[in-house]
Amino acid sequence: MALDPAETRAILDLYPSPRSAMLPLLWLGQNSDGWIKPETVTAVAQLVGVEESEVVSVLSFYTMYRTQPPAQRRLQVCRSLACAMRGAGEILERIREETGVGPGETAPDGAFSVEVVECIAACDHAPACLFNERMTGPLTPNRALGMLRGEGGEPE
Amino acid sequence: MSDSAPAPQLVNVTIDGAPYAFPKGTLLVDAVRQVGHPVPFYCYHEKLKPAGACRVCMVQMESPRGPMIVTSCTTPVGEGMQIQTMSDGAREARRQVLEFLLINHPLDCPVCDKGGECDLQDFTLRYGPGVSRFAEPKIHRMKAHELGPFLVLDQERCILCQRCVRYEDEVLGEQNLVLHGRGDGTVIDTTRGEPYAGHFSGNNTELCPVGALTSQTYRFKARPWDLRPTPSVCQGCSLGCNITVQRRGAEIVRLLARENAAVDGGWLCDRGRYGFGTVRADARLTAPQVRRDGQLVATSWDAAIDAVRQGLTLHGQRGIAVLGGARLTDEEAYLLGRLTRAVLRSNDLDWRTGAQRFAAPEAIGCHSAQVTDIDAADLIVIVDTPVGEEVPVLALRLRRAAARAGIVDIGPERNLTVGRAERVACAPEDLAEAVRGLTVRVAEAKMPLVVWNGSGDGELARAVAKLGAPLLVPGEFANARGAEAAGLLPDLLPGYRSMAEAAAVSEAWGGGPLPVKPGRAAAAILEAAARGDLGALYLVGSNPLGTFPDGTLAARALDTIPFLVVQDLFATDAAVHADVVLPALGPFEKTGHVTNLAGVRQEVQAVAPGPAGARSDLDIFVALAGALGATLPATAAAVASEQQALGRAEKPAMVTVLDRFTSGPHEIDGLRLLVRTQLYAGGGTAAFDPNLHVVRGEPRLRIHSTDATALGLRSGQFVIAEGDGASMRAVIELDDGLEPGYVAFGAHTPGANRMGQRVRLVLAGENGLASTVPVAAMGVNRR
Lengths: 156, 783
Known about the structure:
The structure holds 2 protein chains of 2 kinds.
Chain A: H1 5-13, H2 22-33, H3 38-48, H4 52-61, E1 73-78, H5 81-85, H6 88-99, E2 105-106, E3 112-117, E4 129-131, E5 134-136, H7 141-148
Parallel strand pairs in A: 1-3
Antiparallel strand pairs in A: 1-4, 2-3, 4-5
Helix pairs in contact in A: 2-3, 3-4, 6-7
Chain B: E1 10-15, E2 18-23, H1 28-34, E3 58-63, E4 66-71, E5 81-84, H2 88-101, H3 119-127, E6 145-146, E7 151-153, H4 163-172, E8 177-180, E9 187-190, H5 203-207, E10 213-215, E11 228-233, E12 242-248, E13 251-257, H6 270-274, E14 289-292, E15 295-298, H7 301-315, E16 320-324, H8 330-343, E17 349-350, H9 373-376, E18 379-383, H10 387-390, H11 392-402, E19 406-411, E20 422-425, H12 431-436, H13 439-444, E21 448-452, H14 458-467, E22 471-472, H15 480-485, E23 492-493, E24 497-498, H16 502-508, H17 522-531, E25 536-540, H18 544-547, H19 551-560, E26 563-568, E27 580-583, E28 592-595, E29 601-604, H20 617-627, H21 636-646, E30 666-668, E31 671-676, H22 693-696, E32 700-703, H23 705-711, E33 718-723, E34 727-734, E35 742-746, E36 758-764, E37 770-774
Helix pairs in contact in B: 2-3, 7-20, 8-20, 8-21, 17-19
């Protein structure tokens, strides 16, 4: 069950208009399934009283909602100023050279994915990244490749 | 308080230094346009709610804090407002917005369909900068993204005004197109990348202010300045939406909506907009044919007309009957009536070759309603009429009314597929009872309205008439009302005259007695033919094999009739039986008038010559009469003036609606078989129109999802419906608008009316042939 009934109720009760609960309900779905399944979209549309197409449209506006199942290992490399200057671009380039997977792409076997993100407030660790939602840095090309290949180096 | 509407409160506004007064609530964009100070706009459209999305309609408004730049499409007039439309500030604001809109625009105007009629071109020229300061690479997106069978999107040209998105939502209530993404990544697409499935995609191409949404049929066909427009009227259904036919040279390249507020509200359905492929279809009949030694062979018109004369002379002793006429112009229908009665001397004449029993509400004792009455009605009863398939553009008006009025939707399936409606589910034989059950509610309503396509029996007709509410009859034939008024009925003369007035009509037709005994209706004609009691049958633009509810009877009739003349655009399955085939001209090829479901008489124009060997029905009637020694008026104008001089009867007679005309309910595996109008199923021109081929697809068998589950059927699965009379292959479509317990074929689907009494479903194998396993024997739960 993607949307826990009790949590759903609690979220809906927070807002005077059900429509306002659309984003938190989508979060609820993503947190329990790892991504937002089509049936979650259908359910949220019914719960907040809008057409499914509107939920899809809203969903596409926000980059942090996932509409595909996530890879097993997700690397999000920061490309904002400090990280860019400390070599984030070179790391991404090495990953592409070694694995053939570029920013925004997922390995064909679904084992890992690489994304670029804007500042994650870890400039003191530049070049920083999130690995499976956990921050770590400074990142090196070899460490990034090791994490993607599941050979260790993950943040605690 | 008085009942009359209060005079609108006026608001004083100064525009570019001159004082004006506008009704309260007027939007600035309309106000400045009304007084001749146009501002550019993309997102704003009179038929859509303001969005303020494109930001190009900006004007300058004085405020206590100094001059403000506001979007005129979202700002209503206010007392004392001072507006500058061409101040430096307003001009600079628009110039900057236009520069921004062009940053990622591909500027492929030389190959763009919209070039020459593009608001982005025009406004940039008038209000925009001459050059762009943006030197960075442009973002590339999908260039020829096929959204659906007719609609192609160029995401790079799109300026995200959202007219299409808002039209889908506000006008259609369908949300076929939505915005995806944000910022410079925003694009228009279908919700989940599925093909656009609605019936009204084409209106988007006219709403789109740029070259983003284009038509599959018009892409790269022409430049707007090469096109010549002709105003005409769509003959796809009985609504008669107004159109502008645009030709490049002799070729029709596109149809545009030509708003008639009393008829179409400025919209077209896709069948109407794209259904002009018949004029150049390869399948058109191009020469008359006569049967020689069992084979139909091409011949000259003189020989064909003479063959008809000979055949009628030889077989006419045993009776001549004429079926059809509801797809002709008013003039042609009238002339067909005169030909049949005065020249062929027969009253065996009927336009009702389908399920529709009458056309004008008065014909069953109801008041006629206007289409716009839908907008004011407070209670609308829809009786067993799939309005979205039968008269699509009328359905849009009903959808809008559903937000405001009470809609009672009666029948075995949901008639209004979008919008709030109160369902009264009932079997076809219980419709009259359901209608009678609404007597009190209709009587208590201030402005009730009934919508019924006229397909049913006499009991239902009496029940509808007894409601006493104005009626709209969106029937299955485009000009049924014209045919009925012209007297293409066994017992009615032109102008709803009874047979008692035959003498008056005879006088107008130049003397000579007319047969006064009422003739036989379509069912009786076909029965007589099947029995061998009829000598000759003349089918004019009609194919009872496809359209008559009892197709088995029609098939026996055409098998047995000694002499059959078929006059049509295409070699229909009726033409295969014919002794003489006469190729006729069709829509877009004839000038005359058609009468829509509300009785509005509208002019149609010939814009294409049609196949060289085909003739207009009018010319054929004149030639045929000539061969039989009679003279008929030879032009549409002459016929129209004769018909007008004859006028209507002082006390119009009513149409006889038979109490029974079908061969009873059919069953499929315990489910009731319905034959329902389906937009592209086609019994007329749609079946042969290459433009519509893409949406026609396989015959569909619709079924409620619970029944499908019980029978183990999936959406998209092929089945073969095996009847005693005919078998047909169809694809399963789940449709929960249909009540459980029914399955539905599209009307006019070849074979759907010839299945016989018992039908069983058989799963189609991979090769499309029947497997040996009947669905009902698969060990699943049966109802």
